[in-house]
Amino acid sequence: TQLLEQSPQFLSIQEGENLTVYCNSSSVFSSLQWYRQEPGEGPVLLVTVVTGGEVKKLKRLTFQFGDARKDSSLHITAAQPGDTGLYLCAGAGGGGSYIPTFGRGTSLIVHP
Amino acid sequence: EAQVTQNPRYLITVTGKKLTVTCSQNMNHEYMSWYRQDPGLGLRQIYYSMNVEVTDKGDVPEGYKVSRKEKRNFPLILESPSPNQTSLYFCASSFGQFNGYTFGSGTRLTVV
């Protein structure tokens, strides 16, 4: 199974700040997803990116897939307490395998 | 409402007592998976299924069984649970191998 490294592991910021979370791998993926998970609940899909260099926006969240399809970033503008949660990236189709691989996540806390 | 339903949400059992966690999806998805989530280890895939009667092992299949007799159901069976199977379990489904997953709300299992 291909490894997806997420950084930072933990992030604690004040409301209104901007932040970027990274997801890196040595493998090329056919697609990459970002999820947000709240304590005790299942991950919820935010976005899927499939094309190298692709940028998708979801309100204050901007997702980018690297040109080589090995990495991705999630940028949040003007973070709010409601953005608090565990952000997970997952890659599919890496190394010819169709088994999706999850990173270990970035735990974000946004303080009011 | 499109959803993945897992039952039970919480389960405490004793070592060696067979148990089944049920999973059902109403989206006609072909792909279904079981994951376990442990602190510091992230989401790890146990088993997955590409369609009815087609299942395969994920990263951590030891001690688990699955079956896919119908498209909508994908139960997880622990024939002889052990304390190291104490974890938070998620069932998920997807309509394509490169698409994102819809997750259930999770089953918190404690084996004593």
Task: List the main descriptive attributes of the protein structure presented here.
A: 112 residues; mainly beta; 6-stranded mixed beta sheet; 5-stranded antiparallel beta sheet; 52% strand; B: mainly beta; 7-stranded mixed beta sheet; 11 strands; 51% strand
Approximately what portion of the residues of chain A adopt beta-strand conformation? over 45%
Radius of gyration of chain A (Å)? 13 Å
> How many DSSP H or I helices of chain B?
0
Secondary-structure element string of chain B: EEEEEEEEEEE
Radius of gyration of chain B: 13 Å
Question: Explain this structure to me?
Answer:
Chain A has 112 residues and is mainly beta. Chain A is built from no helices and 11 strands. In chain A, the strands form 2 sheets. In chain A, strands 2, 4, 5, 9, 10 and 11 form a 6-stranded mixed sheet that branches. In chain A, strand 4 (31-37) and strand 5 (44-49) form a beta hairpin. The model of chain A has no long low-confidence stretch (mean pLDDT 92). Chain B is mainly beta. Chain B contains no helices and 11 strands. In chain B, strands 2, 4, 5, 6, 9, 10 and 11 form a 7-stranded mixed sheet that branches. In chain B, strands 1-3-8-7 form a 4-stranded antiparallel sheet, with no helix packed on it. Chain B is globular, with a radius of gyration of 13 Å.
